[in-house]
Amino acid sequence: MKITHVLIPAAIGTIFFSSSLIANTNNQWVDPFIGTGGDGHTFPGAVVPFGMMQLSPDTDTVMRGVDPQPEIYKRCAGYHYDDHTIVGFSHTHFSGTGHSDLGDLLIMPMIDTVQIEPGSADNPDAGYRSRFSHDQEWASPGYYGVELLDSGIKAELTTSERAGMHQYTFSKGQQAHIMLDLTSAIYNFENKVIWSDIRKINDRTLVAYRATNGWANNRQMYFAIEFSQPIDNYQFINLDDNRYRCMDCLGKEKHSTIENKQVKEAAGKAIKFVASFNNPTKQPIKIKVGLSAVSKSNALENLQTEIPDWNFTAVRDNAAQKWHHYLSKFEAQGSEAQKRQFYTSLYHALQAPSIYQDVNGQYRGVDGEIHQGKDHTHYTLFSLWDTYRALHPLLTYVDPQRVGDMVQSMLDHYQQSYDDMLPIWSFHGHETWTMIGYHAVSVIADAYLKGIRNFNTELALEAVLATANSPIYDATAEYKQFGYVPMDVLPESVSITLEYAYDDFTIARLLEAMGKPNDANVYYQRALSYKNVFDKQTGYMRGRDSKGQWDPEFNPEEAKYMGPFTEGNANQYTFYVPHDVQGLIDLIGGDTKFEQRLDALFDTHLSDEMIKEHEDIAGLIGNYAHGNEPSHHIAYLYNYAGKPWRTQERIRQIMDTLSSDKPDGLAGNDDVGQMSAWYIFSAMGFYPVAPGDLSYAIGAPQLPKISLKLPNKQVFTVEAKNLSNTHQYIQTATLNGKPLTQSFITHQQIMAGGQLTFVMSDKPNKAWGHAPSKRPPSLSTVL
């Protein structure tokens, strides 16, 4: 099977897998370079599904004593496709975030002369940094390879869940050097490293540790590093001493005894280690690295358990097979470009939340203590403001067992948190308090309502209610007092009010499903709080203070930093009432006015001046910002006004103009898989506008045929007959041979399996889905 980087000739970028199980499977359609350009913020390196280890090249990082690069936002994942030098390969990365951290333990090979500083992109010869070319760079699920042009070293990477493997093949040089850098980081600030240490325990093995202050403070990570051959020479380098301390004679160590072990080690805030090897062209140098947030011994156990030998090809094939297991849950037909987009989206969507637990079950909790996971795997990286929308609903079909473990991991967070809160935006045992809302409740409710119950459901209800009524979190007290968050109490007050209202809807749904109708009614009423920030005079959601006065500086197009809206403007956020779109239509003045307002959103130019304070507002069609989450459901809202054919137009417009199979093919950062999950659902022809209500608004299928293998052994297939560039409209629809006249489908219909068939046309069917009874449900229509 060929896995070819789509932008390079097949003869150069071809990788052959030895496993016949992988040949001609959906792995071949994944291009990890999609999203590494523009502001996609994905990384091309090696990772397995939901893996703790993300082993990937860094094209620029922030080095000790060097000011942050002015374009560091582009490199939130450590790598950017526009760059032409590599500084090394580190073991932890975010995929598609709008913030940066991680980049733990950078490793870089070199030949002959030891370099301990990276040099610069403009002058790579001044350090160990190497030039590279995309023509000699390869990536596929679970594998990454590149030629380091300055040294003639071929670097290859692969991973398991908690361990990674490097393979460096040297074409020249009298001596090879492998540098281990504990100072490097993917952005933050000077003196990010609080403390680090590294110890050589024999002539092949080291253990290391570092704690960092970054997006997460005092984040701890442990490493076990093993070489495939004995180290011939080595250096410990402590940059804090303003000198290089070299402890390099293996002969001295040979005189030590087991009883009087003279272990070589170094500790400080700026530690590096260089291992040197003679005759490097004789055989490749391989390195295995295990990770743990608990201890060095756990890192070593993770390494020895998951990668016990030195067969790089076997590890690579095992990683590919794990991806094959998940990628084969979907079978998609379409052009090669469409399949690359679809399967790469699935690949990106299945990287997080990621495992954060050692093979012995231990993990470091949000309280900093070591806990033992007994009945579930513990996960981290909950970017919930982004991922509650489409990623978590997608996972309920792809792997419900993991979804239950993820929910239980959120409950672990709740029990260990000093604030009695579910996670907001958490990773590696730390809460960052980034973004707004309490969207963990949406994920929990959606899972429970779909029958996923492999978590402590009573504890989940307790945690949901405690979080929604927290006395310390983002003006929840004022929200309950006034029915909205006043703008003189908290910035981003309108967005917070709207997102609380949606979350309260999901709580009501959960309470109702758990047999507590009276309690549910309280939260259904709270879910109507969105009406309290709707200004009937202007027709927009608008900030108001604790005296009830409207924002006097209101401009519906302006997105102010620390203003009434979160990474958006009133034009966008006025449409954020996903749970009660009919109620919003009534406020705006009916179907026709609502449609006109949607058209104005898409068709009115938004000037750069209005969004200059928010780099996340990207992928614009008028005021619609596909590159940021508050817009993701908006194209589907025409359905609720009885105009589903307009949704069909808009979905095609978004697909055609804001996504591609190129490195800059994402309209904004992928946000830990949310953008990718939007693409998967939308390509199939439906989308979860309000997770928790168990309905999906129908858009328009973008591929001729997609089948989903469900966890209950059923298969749900969507087929679009006559689909073409001109035939974008749904003429008729049938579900299992029976006419489907409503513009939505339900979770139950999907789980039952069968076939949803659309007949596409170049002309809209304006009667289909038009009647009020045929529209997706809204809270106002069911209360």
Which geometry do the CA atoms define? globular
Distance from first to last alpha carbon: 55 Å
- Return the average pLDDT rounded to an integer: 91
Residue windows where pLDDT falls under 50 for at least 5 positions:
1-21, 242-261
For the secondary structure, the number of strands is 37
Tally of helical runs = 19
CATH-level-2 architecture of the domain at 26-324: Distorted Sandwich
CATH topology of the domain at 26-324: Beta-galactosidase, Chain A, domain 5
Largest sheet: 9 strands, antiparallel
- Give the percentage of residues in beta strands: 15-25%
Helix content: 10-25%
Q: Whole-number radius of gyration?
A: 27 Å
Lateral strand order in the biggest sheet: 6-7-8-9-17-13-12-11-15
CATH first level of the domain at 26-324: which class?
Answer: Mainly Beta
What would you say this structure looks like, in words?
This protein has 783 residues and is α+β, with helices and mostly antiparallel strands. Among the domains are: 26-324, Beta-galactosidase, Chain A, domain 5 (Distorted Sandwich), CATH 2.70.98; 474-631, Glycosyl hydrolase family fold (Up-down Bundle). Helices cover 25% and strands 21% of the residues. The protein has a nine-stranded antiparallel β-sheet with strand order 6-7-8-9-17-13-12-11-15. It has a six-stranded mixed β-sheet with strand order 18-32-33-37-34-35. The chain has a four-stranded antiparallel β-sheet with strand order 4-10-16-14, with no helix packed on it. A hairpin with a 2-residue loop joins strand 28 (620-621) and strand 29 (624-625). Helix 4 packs across helix 17 (674-684), helix 6 (391-398) packs across helix 7 and helix 9 runs antiparallel to helix 11. The protein is globular, with a radius of gyration of 27 Å. The termini are far apart. The relative contact order is 0.09. This is Sugar hydrolase. One of its GO terms (biological process) is glycoprotein catabolic process. Residues 298-761 form the Glycosyl hydrolase family domain. Residues 29-292 form the Glycosyl hydrolase family 92 N-terminal domain. Pfam families: Glyco_hydro_92, Glyco_hydro_92N.
